[in-house]
Amino acid sequence: MAIEFKPSPSLPPPVNSVGAVAWVRHNLLSSPLNVFLTLFSFYILYLLIPPVIEWGIVGATFSGASKADCTGDGACWAFVGVYFEQFMYGLYPSEETWRINLTLILLVILLGTYAVKTVNKLYLSLVILVVYPVIAYFLFSGGVFGLEVVETSLWGGLFLTTLLGVVGIVASFPLGVLLALGRQSKMPIAKSVCIVFIETIRAVPLITILFMASVMIPLFLPEGMNFNKLLRVLIGITLFSAAYMAEVIRGGLQAIPKGQYEAADAMGLTYWQSMILVILPQALKLVIPGIVNTFIGLFKDTTLVYIVGMFDLLGRIQAATHDANWLGMTIEGYAFAGFIYWAACFGMSRYSMRIERKLETGHKRN
Amino acid sequence: MSDKNSSSIKNFLNDAGNRALIFQVVLLAVVVFVGYYLFTNLQANLANQGISTGFAFLNQPAGFPVLIHLIEYTEANTYGRAFVVALINTVVISLMGIALATIIGVVMGLARLSNNWLVARLATVYVETLRNIPLLLQMFFWYFAVLATLPIPKNSIIFGDFFLNKRGIYSPNPITQDGFGIVIAGFILSIIASIALVVWAKKRQTRTGLWFPAYWASFGTIIGITFLALVVSGFPIEFDLPQKSRFNVTGGMVLPPEFVAVLVALSTYTGAFIAEIVRAGILSVNWGQTEAARSLGLKDSLTQRLIVLPQALRVIIPPLTSQFLNLAKNSSLGAAIAYPELVAVVMGTTLNQTGQAIENIGLCMLVYGTLSLSISMFMNWYNKKMSLIER
């Protein structure tokens, strides 16, 4: 009679190596030091979380029209509610704010069109980069088609923050690419012009550049010719972040093996063809994290325009906290601003990680 | 004839070298022309507005107060002295910020790698929160939301001899008495002695292989000799304690709220970035190195100190340098909350009073340029010292 082989069933893993208990033992209580650190962390959480919930949610007042409505002992979110429109649009006239919303909706629609397969992406990009800004400009400032003129001094709040950030990002990117290529170029004069520009800008704080833009530019222009302060500040921000962008992109250019340049030359491509078709696509892909970091930095740095007297989101909040009717609302205001900036910056960094993974084409070493 | 001519022009233009030459000549011409154009406009504008040029204004009395000054300063002093006061304020806050941010960054970076799940999560929350919120907002938060809500001096919060109120943090102020020279002499002597000790220990180790705990010994030497000098000279230090009077706190050393807000904001913000750099540096060291060290029988602490950290430092130092530079430049944000640093004093008050934009902005840029250069020179020297020596 043949003996049939019957494997005995596997034993279950030891009780203390799987499940929640094992996880806690391994991650929280593995050594005396770890036990201490765990207790310490719980203490910090205990110090932070209950008061924050108590202040921000349980004891908070969420609606109301004046400070008197805030009877709870927690946060007074009614303050944010009352000032919400100013925080979003600055002093832009209330009945005209639809123009800003319309511009935003237009952008969302245009960006959404990217998902449609039959649309020519090149033309769409041209529309977004060339036609759309013109439309946006006229919608914002008015003066055509019977739209009321809105002075740029009234622009403010999150609208201004976004405008500064987006224009800075879009304009500084191509400039940064040009500067990086110039710095890598074999032409001595072009190279030195780029190096001097990049290094000078990077050596000084953004505030000095903004001061230059608002104080010094008028001195350098002919008598009577003066342009808008917003435009001057935009130029300052763009030049500043272009210098940083250039250094990030240079890193990418340096990481491309020499063979790629030689191969492009061997194919008979001109300088611009080889850059646009061969080198830059690879270089830019390599430095996506650096580029996004520069964008995030730029977005946060837009707050500095407050120092030269423009009222972006932070500026408007700062102004609102000085309102005699709403004194003592600083923490509410800063919490609101902090949340918006945090969400925008955190979102950007997570999105860049997604792009990185999407563009991953397997060059990466393990 | 004309056909031949045009083709020779074509040939000339087809040569990449010639095209580069033309492009550069044009570029240079544009740069020179723009520079000339701006310069002539500037001269005309300055003449129109009756602004004199030059640095003579630095010798005129400034006539404005600077709230925080580490050297003697009154309103009667010159603009030049106000500039020096502001310069010192900028340098002091930058160096203190760098030191604090490095400590916070290293602690948080190591915490993110901790095998304690809770500690790692807390450190992640710290890093992700602070680096995604603008620095200016954080400065405002510390200044207007935290320090400004402290009690008035009458109701100061008291920890022993430390007082905390709206006007700042008060602490005992050490005042040296006669005979303090002996202590200083002892201190310098002990430092020289410990340097000699370290040199001797290194030499002996290369010669005989015997290890001598020179660093601990020199630490002991410095503490011991300094303490001995203190005893010999009869403790020539007295503390000026802060006193609570009816409405105010007098005496002692005071850290003004502007200073505290800028320092805290700068160091916690930059610390979050440094934490990421430290973490990336440590992760970049191959795990095999740790395994090799363990199989040699090294303890975990020695593995970290002798094997992992020296290799991680090579990855850490270059980005760390740029964080230090950022911190020094970001100290200029103190201008927004009335910390009297360079931008506030020179580009703010002085510029407004004298109208000499070119000189003042130029001076500022020069200082920041020099500061940046000094920091990066020091860090490059350190980087070289730490870098891998290959045969």
TrEMBL record, chain A:
Coiled coil: none
Keywords: Amino-acid transport, Cell membrane, Membrane, Transmembrane, Transmembrane helix, Transport
Main subcellular location: membrane
Record domain ABC transmembrane type-1: where: 158-352
GO CC annotations, alphabetized: ATP-binding cassette (ABC) transporter complex
Gene Ontology process terms (BP): amino acid transport
One function term, GO molecular function aspect: transmembrane transporter activity
CDD domains: TM_PBP2 (cd06261)
Presence of keyword Transmembrane helix: yes
Membrane-topology annotation of the record: Multi-pass membrane protein
Protein name: Polar amino acid ABC transporter, inner membrane subunit
Regions crossing the membrane: 33-53, 98-116, 123-145, 157-181, 193-221, 233-253, 274-296, 333-351
Keyword Membrane listed: yes
Source organism of this protein record: Marinomonas posidonica (strain CECT 7376 / NCIMB 14433 / IVIA-Po-181)
Pfam families: BPD_transp_1
Cited InterPro entries: AA_ABC_transptr_permease_3TM, ArtM/GltK/GlnP/TcyL/YhdX-like, MetI-like, MetI-like_sf
Entry-linked PANTHER family: INNER MEMBRANE AMINO-ACID ABC TRANSPORTER PERMEASE PROTEIN YHDY, MEMBRANE COMPONENT OF AMINO ACID ABC TRANSPORTER
Recorded family membership: Belongs to the binding-protein-dependent transport system permease family. HisMQ subfamily.
Localisation: Cell inner membrane; Cell membrane
NCBIfam families: HEQRo_perm_3TM (TIGR01726)
Automatic annotation (TrEMBL), chain B:
CC terms in the record's Gene Ontology section: ATP-binding cassette (ABC) transporter complex
Molecular functions per Gene Ontology: transmembrane transporter activity
InterPro entries for the chain: AA_ABC_transptr_permease_3TM, ArtM/GltK/GlnP/TcyL/YhdX-like, MetI-like, MetI-like_sf
SUPFAM superfamilies from the UniProt entry: MetI-like
Main localization, broad class: membrane
Subcellular location: Cell inner membrane; Cell membrane
Start and end residues of each ABC transmembrane type-1 domain: 87-379
Residues of the signal peptide: none
GO biological process: amino acid transport
TM helices/strands, residue ranges: 20-39, 51-71, 83-111, 132-152, 180-201, 213-239, 259-278, 357-382
Membrane topology annotation: Multi-pass membrane protein
Family: Belongs to the binding-protein-dependent transport system permease family. HisMQ subfamily.
Protein name: Polar amino acid ABC transporter, inner membrane subunit
Natural source organism: Marinomonas posidonica (strain CECT 7376 / NCIMB 14433 / IVIA-Po-181)
